[in-house]
Specification:
Layout (H helix, E strand, L loop, with lengths): L1 H9 L4 H13 L2 E2 H8 L3 H13 L3 E3 L7 E4 L1 H5 L1 H13 L1
Antiparallel strand pairs: 1-3, 2-3
Helix pairs in contact: 1-2, 1-6, 3-4
Length: 93
């Protein structure tokens, strides 16, 4: 899981936005539209990054299709120290 986190959050161009999404979801679960509004990102961009995070087991959705609420998975919470380290590194760059 740690290797996947480093890759998804720092190994690609979208890592910074994925870190922003994770920070927001750490504060409280939200749907894609709320995330787009709160982070001033395009809805399609948010959906893309949520899909990547979901495909890699970092976030999960409530299963309500359009209004699905996203939150970090239990597995991501188990590795939250690594996520915080990554977030600090992203902030420094």
């Amino acid at each position: 899981m740690e290797a996947a986190l480093w890759y998804v959050l720092t190994g690609t161009r979208g890592g910074t936005n994925r870190v922003r999404l994770l920070r927001a979801l750490d504060e409280r679960p939200r749907n894609a539209n709320q995330l787009a509004d709160d982070l001033d990102l395009d809805y399609k961009t948010v959906r893309h990054h949520l899909d990547v995070l979901e495909d890699n087991g970092v976030v999960q959705d409530s299963g309500d299709d359009y209004g699905a609420v996203y939150l970090p998975t239990g597995r991501a919470r188990d590795h939250w120290d690594t996520i915080e380290t990554i977030m600090e590194q992203v902030d420094e760059s």
